[in-house]
Amino acid sequence: ILNVEQSPQSLHVQEGDSTNFTCSFPSSNFYALHWYRWETAKSPEALFVMTLNGDEKKKGRISATLNTKEGYSYLYIKGSQPEDSATYLCAFKSSNYQLIWGAGTKLIIKP
Amino acid sequence: KAGVTQTPRYLIKTRGQQVTLSCSPISGHRSVSWYQQTPGQGLQFLFEYFSETQRNKGNFPGRFSGRQFSNSRSEMNVSTLELGDSALYLCASNLQDGEQFFGPGTRLTVL
After folding, report:
1. pLDDT by residue (tens digit) across B7-38?
2. Which chain A positions have a beta carbon within 8 Å of B100's beta carbon?
3. Is A86 at the interface with chain B, CB within 8 A?
4. What is the pLDDT of residue A1?
5. pLDDT confidence of residue A19
6. How many cross-chain Cβ pairs, A to B, lie less than 8 Å apart?
7. Contact B75, B20 (CB under 8 A)
8. B88: burial class by Cβ within 10 Å (0-12, 13-18, 19+)?
9. Do A46 and B101 touch (CB under 8 A)?
10. A21-76 per-position pLDDT tens digit
11. Whether residue B1 has pLDDT greater than 70
12. 3-state secondary structure of B92
């Protein structure tokens, strides 16, 4: 059974602090790893799609790394702002195109 | 380019009834996936359609079914509704197995 784990489940971070969280996924049959941000009352929006081992992607203050050999990806947020409060989801895409979602990390930024 | 649209946005049904939800993907996207989100739960994958064929299926009972038309529009049907089917149903389309673009969702309430 393919499983995607995200940790921690939730996180409270002081405004201005940096933070990071983890997505663990199967290290076999890898096709891609997706990160999404899901704000309350909105639909999930893609942050990154990563396909190569060692990939590092950046969008503003948010960046992500990928290790397909050991099956993990980190998402980093530098200098957290209140608008970063959201649930961050990762999804593992296998070579048969199945997309398996983690349960998400709920990030709350305290002003 | 227009985004993913879902109709209706809100729906109230009673137990035992059946319901059909509709999703129009972004123009040119051939893959449509359906998800269920209930309070306190993450995204639960229902199924994915690609070029009118079901490519992947989640662990939902046979009461949940779907189809995709030649114009890539997709419908999801739930028969014999149960109270536990009350949820937000999201559909997402993607191009070439890349990032998923989500619609606004259909909020289904079963009384």
Report:
1. 999 999 999 999 999 999 999 999 999 999 98
2. 34, 36, 44, 46, 91, 99
3. no
4. 61
5. 97
6. 46
7. yes
8. middle
9. yes
10. 999 999 899 999 999 999 988 999 999 999 999 999 999 999 999 999 999 999 99
11. no
12. strand
CB contact under 8 A, B102 and A49: no
pLDDT above 90 as % of chain B: 83
Task: Give the integer Cα–Cα distance in Å for A97 and A52.
Answer: 16
Smallest CA–CA distance, residue A50 to chain B, in Å, is 10
Rounded-to-integer distance, Cα A79 and Cα A81, Å: 6
Write the DSSP assignment of chain A as a string of letters.
----EEE-SEEEEETT--EEEEEE--SSSEEEEEEEEE-TTS--EEEEEE-STT-EEEETTEEEEEETTTTEEEEEESS--GGG-EEEEEEEEETT--EEE---EEEEEE-
**Best of B32, B99, B107 to mutate (most A CBs within 10 Å, chain A):** B99
Single out the residue of B36, B11, B24, B19 nearest to residue B103, CA to CA: B24
Asked if B48 and A99 come within 8 Å (Cβ–Cβ), the reply is: yes
Closest Cβ opposite residue A98 in set B56, B103, B105: B56
| Owner of token pair 């790893």 | A33
